[in-house]
Each structure stands twice: as structure tokens, then as C-alpha cells.
């Protein structure tokens, strides 16, 4: 069969000589241009992205597998997004990664793709790119860190930081203890080992069928991580021959599987935004309300932080994602195709659970049916908002309180330690202008720490509402992704301190108790914020980014244009 790469390496005359000759300066012998599949290995490696800093070794394992299967592997860099270092948020740059990777995939002589990701936005960014190009593609995530260890107990990255922050504000620990604990939480290569966004999106890639079984959970430093990468290299060569592309794998049924799996694992609310964006690139009909409707009959099975007790290393040894998917049984579409060439049902048919404390059964779940992500609507969120029920406090799921409004997270942090802050445990904290345009980039600032005076009183949680996101490693009764956002003129922009807000998660409502006439009067007085930038990526992003309920892709990137061979240079 004639391969796409043959337009380069099989070309005759001057152009063919140019393509082959310059590649040979790397020491490749002539037979690599004999028509074998050329496999691009898209890496998000960078020392500025700590979660992905070990991808060079993973890439070597992938290359070994490609060579073994008779392919020609070529590694290329894409934008690295390190959640822990980049400001104001890597979410501002997810679409930049997707756009850059898409153009590189299409512009180069590639027949298939292996996607190396890890940190939060790198997984969806590469999946979005591969979806738009629609060449055969397979993902290899970098794997979680080993469990953190501190004072004789396991501690989870991210989740424990929020707890340390609260303990420090309440005077229960010292700065010196926090400093020591830093090194105890991150003691190996890999991404967060809680069920944060990185672990969630690795699980989503596997649930969608885009990763080999068990790939989501092998620790980053486990030899089986590299064994899996080698098998991925072998498998992608076969996928090219089979023409097994993302559009054949990530169908509506695959997304339904992923949403249900996300509920079962207690996954991050950020999965909502990313899955909507990936589906948009493929033309799959997926809307915000699907995440509620499809998850209502799914209990939380996995007992992992931040909702539970254990960590990803424990999840791996308990049986990993295949054990969860087998337990879900008929709740999933078993006939969905995966990168293995087999169906979901075939992949997980023999999966075993080795620890029922970590992975519970449908008959005895960790949390009951309907404890996953809930979608809320009302006059405060006409286009929707979400809340992670498994990480919230049950007594706050139905709550009415007066708003205390802040126009930014920074404004709140400047006063949160004041003893005279007009707040009690019934107050509803509103933090706005944290959405896609407003910050910009929709950062993970919604789960602000509780006021210090309440922490000292022993208050552990209170209702918080924001048009921003929260880390998948975080917890609390936090209403997120309010759409439209305040900066786009959404009702959140009109809330004033003292207004009564009613949250009713069982009824799926979020209501501002202010009449329509008063809201219209306030709207007439409201002025939109000035543009965040007048040049560069930030300007492009803020002018074209979609709202949270639509996945935050850029409006002109929705959909795809396939993989036509670009015009020849002369």
C-alpha cells in the first residue's frame, strides 16, 4: 500500500533527494525509506514541565517497539505545559498546544502517531490535535508518581497541599513543617498520584480506547510503564496498516463510556471541559447535560484522594482501570473499538480486582449512585455549572446563604485572614472574573481556602461559587464553571454581597434570589472589563475562546481538516 510518507521519502528527482538526504545526516541508512510506516512520536517533554520530564526515556521505549514492528520512528517536540510552574494557568495554552501539534502532524511525513503526555492539559491537547488530523494515533501517558510519604502516612500531591494550607492558616502546623513535607510528596518522576486532572485524563484516554489497557495507572518509574510504551510502539505500526484512526475509536459510545468511568473513579470536573473539546474536534454530539444524565446511575467505586483515602499506586496494584470497567459491566458499551483492535469488553474480560478497599463493587460502592459530577442550572448559571459531589460535604448540597462577593481570587486572598471579615459558615463565597476570558484562561482558583477565622473555629467547608475551575486534586463544596462567565456578562457579574443564593444539588439548581427587574437594572450599570491583551496569543485566545459549557476550544478550531499531504516546496 502507498503510505502518506511516500509523498516525501518515495519522491523522485530533486525533491526526493532533499527529503532523504537531510534525514540521513542523523545516521539513518537508506532502507528506512523503503515504504515502511513513519511513526511520529509527539512529546511534551520539558524540564519546565516536571510531570513530563521523564518522557525522553518513554520515547526510547516507544521507538524500540516501532523498530521491532518494522516502522520508522521520529520524535518531535510539542508545547510542554507544566501545570505547577506556568502562569497564569496552563488552560490558557491548551489550545495553543493543540493547534501547534495539529499543524506539525499534518505538515510532516507521518503515517501514524504516538502521543506522549502526562501533566493535566497535555493529554487533552494532544488528543484534540490528533482528532483534527485523524491519522492513526495511540496515547502513552507518563504515569503517576509513587505515593507520597510523610510522618508514617501516605500523602497525595495537590490534595495534601490544600490540607496543609488550611492547617497552616489555622495554626496547626508551622512553615518549617510545610517546607519539609514538600520533598515527601513528590519523590519520583510522574504526574500527581491523586485522582486529579492528570490521573483523570489518563484514565479518560484509556476509557475512550486511545490507550493500551492498564496504561493509565502504572507508576511512572515502574518497569511496566516502559514495557507498555514498547508495546505501544509495536501496536501503532499495525494500526497504520489497519487504518485505525481516532474518528473510528472516539465515537459517541466511547464518550459515553468515558463519562461513566469518570463517575466511577471520582474523576476531576476538568474532564468535562476536556471531553467536550475533544468531541468538538471529532464532530461527536456531546453536551454538558450528558455528563449529568450519563453519570446519575453510576456509583463511585474507587476510594482515592481527594474524595477518598488511597492513591494511584494503590489503584494500580488493585487492578487499575480495567478492573473498574469490568465491574461496570453492562453499564458500558462493551462493543466500543479500542487501539488494541479489540473491543472494550474483550480488553477487560479477564481483569481482576486485588483489593476491594480500593476498588469497590457495584453492590457495595465507595459512594452511592449519583455521587459524580452534577450539572446545575438556574438564573445564576443559565448555561450550566458543575459540582463534584464526591468531594463535597453532604450537609452543604442543599444550602441557602448570603453572598460575599470578590472580583478576583487575589482580592479574596488579600483579606481572607482578617478577623473582621463579615463571614460565617453559612456565607456563600463568590469569586468571579476567573473564567475563560476574565482571568484569562479559567485558572484553578475556585476552591479558595476558607477564611482563617472560620478555620480556627473548626469549620471545614463552606459553599464557594466561581466561573473558574478547581484542581482535580482539590475538594470541598465548590460550584465551578459557571456559564456564561462574569467577564462575558453572565449573571455572576451582577451578584452583590448580601444577595441570597440557594444551592440545591439534588434538584440541580443554582438560584440567585434577586428579581428580574433588579437584575436588569444592575445589567444596565455593568461595564465589561478591558481586554486582557492587545497582541499575541492572549488576544487571539480571548477573542475566540468558547465558554466552559462548550469546552473552551477556540471557535475556529472546532472540527478538523484531516491529513491531506501539503503542497510540495520548490
From TrEMBL:
Residues 357-551 form the Dihydroxy-acid/6-phosphogluconate dehydratase C-terminal domain. Coiled coil: none annotated. Keywords: 2Fe-2S, Amino-acid biosynthesis, Branched-chain amino acid biosynthesis, Iron, Iron-sulfur, Lyase, Metal-binding. It comes from the Bacteria. Signal peptide: none annotated. Residues 36-347 form the Dihydroxy-acid/6-phosphogluconate dehydratase N-terminal domain. InterPro entries: Dihydro-acid_dehy_C, DiOHA_6PGluconate_deHydtase_CS, ILV_EDD_C, ILV_EDD_N, IlvD/EDD_N, Sugar_Degrad_Dehydratases. The keyword Iron applies. Belongs to the IlvD/Edd family. NCBIfam families: PRK06131.1, PRK13017.1. This is IlvD/Edd family dehydratase. It comes from Pseudonocardia eucalypti. The lineage of its organism: Bacteria, Bacillati, Actinomycetota, Actinomycetes, Pseudonocardiales.
Amino acid at each position: 500500500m502507498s503510505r502518506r510518507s511516500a509523498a516525501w521519502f518515495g519522491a523522485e528527482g530533486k525533491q526526493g533527494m532533499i527529503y532523504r538526504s537531510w534525514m540521513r545526516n542523523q545516521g539513518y541508512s537508506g532502507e528506512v525509506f523503503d515504504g515502511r510506516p513513519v511513526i511520529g512520536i509527539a512529546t511534551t517533554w520539558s524540564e519546565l514541565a516536571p510531570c513530563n520530564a521523564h518522557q525522553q526515556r518513554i520515547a526510547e521505549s516507544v521507538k524500540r517497539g516501532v523498530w521491532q514492528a518494522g516502522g520508522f520512528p521520529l520524535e518531535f517536540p510539542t508545547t510542554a505545559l507544566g501545570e505547577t510552574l506556568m502562569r497564569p494557568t496552563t488552560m490558557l495554552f491548551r489550545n495553543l498546544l493543540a493547534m501547534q501539534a495539529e499543524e506539525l502532524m499534518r505538515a510532516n511525513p507521518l503515517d501514524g502517531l504516538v502521543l506522549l503526555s502526562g501533566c493535566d492539559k497535555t493529554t487533552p491537547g494532544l488528543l484534540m490535535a490528533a482528532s483534527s488530523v485523524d491519522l492513526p494515533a495511540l496515547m502513552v501517558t507518563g504515569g503517576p508518581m509513587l505515593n507520597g510519604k510523610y510522618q508514617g502516612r501516605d500523602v497525595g500531591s495537590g490534595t495534601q497541599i490544600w490540607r496543609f494550607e488550611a492547617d497552616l492558616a489555622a495554626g496547626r502546623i508551622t512553615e518549617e513543617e510545610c517546607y519539609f513535607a514538600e520533598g515527601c510528596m513528590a519523590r519520583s518522576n510522574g504526574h500527581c498520584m491523586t485522582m486529579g486532572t492528570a490521573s483523570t485524563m489518563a484514565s479518560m484516554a484509556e476509557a475512550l480506547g486511545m490507550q493500551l489497557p492498564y496504561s493509565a495507572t502504572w507508576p511512572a518509574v515502574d518497569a511496566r510503564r516502559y514495557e507498555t510504551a514498547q508495546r505501544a510502539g509495536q501496536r501503532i505500526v499495525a494500526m497504520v496498516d489497519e487504518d485505525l484512526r481516532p474518528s473510528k475509536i472516539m465515537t459517541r459510545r466511547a464518550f459515553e463510556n468515558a463519562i461513566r468511568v469518570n463517575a466511577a473513579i471520582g474523576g476531576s470536573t476538568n474532564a468535562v471541559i476536556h471531553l467536550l473539546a475533544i468531541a468538538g474536534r471529532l464532530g461527536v454530539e456531546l453536551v454538558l447535560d450528558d455528563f449529568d444524565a450519563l453519570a446519575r446511575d453510576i456509583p463511585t467505586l474507587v476510594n482515592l484522594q481527594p474524595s477518598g483515602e488511597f492513591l494511584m499506586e494503590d489503584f494500580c496494584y488493585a487492578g487499575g482501570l480495567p478492573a473498574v470497567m469490568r465491574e461496570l459491566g453492562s453499564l458500558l458499551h462493551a462493543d466500543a473499538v479500542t487501539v488494541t483492535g479489540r473491543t472494550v469488553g474483550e480488553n477487560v474480560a479477564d481483569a481482576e480486582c486485588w483489593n476491594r478497599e480500593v476498588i469497590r463493587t457495584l453492590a457495595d460502592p465507595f459512594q452511592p449512585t449519583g455521587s459524580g459530577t452534577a450539572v446545575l442550572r438556574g438564573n445564576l448559571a443559565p448555561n450550566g455549572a458543575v459540582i463534584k459531589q464526591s468531594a463535597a460535604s453532604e450537609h452543604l448540597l442543599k444550602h441557602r446563604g448570603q453572598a460575599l462577593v470578590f472580583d478576583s481570587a487575589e482580592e479574596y486572598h488579600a483579606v481572607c485572614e482578617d478577623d473582621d471579615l463579615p463571614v460565617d459558615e453559612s456565607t456563600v463565597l463568590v469569586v468571579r472574573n476567573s473564567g475563560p476570558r476574565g482571568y484569562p484562561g479559567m485558572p484553578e482558583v475556585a476552591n479558595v481556602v476558607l477564611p482563617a477565622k472560620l478555620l480556627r473555629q473548626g469549620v471545614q467547608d463552606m459553599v464557594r461559587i466561581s466561573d473558574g475551575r478547581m484542581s482535580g486534586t482539590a475538594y470541598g463544596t465548590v460550584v465551578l464553571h459557571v456559564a456564561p462567565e462574569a467577564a462575558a456578562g453572565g449573571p455572576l457579574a451582577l451578584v452583590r454581597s448580601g444577595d441570597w443564593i440557594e444551592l440545591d444539588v439534588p434538584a440541580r439548581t443554582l438560584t440567585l434570589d434577586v428579581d428580574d427587574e433588579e437584575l436588569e437594572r444592575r445589567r444596565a450599570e455593568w461595564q465589561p472589563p478591558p481586554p486582557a491583551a492587545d497582541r499575541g496569543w492572549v488576544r487571539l485566545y480571548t477573542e475566540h475562546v468558547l465558554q466552559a459549557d462548550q469546552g473552551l476550544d477556540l471557535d475556529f478550531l472546532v472540527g478538523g481538516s484531516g491529513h491531506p499531504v501539503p503542497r510540495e516546496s520548490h
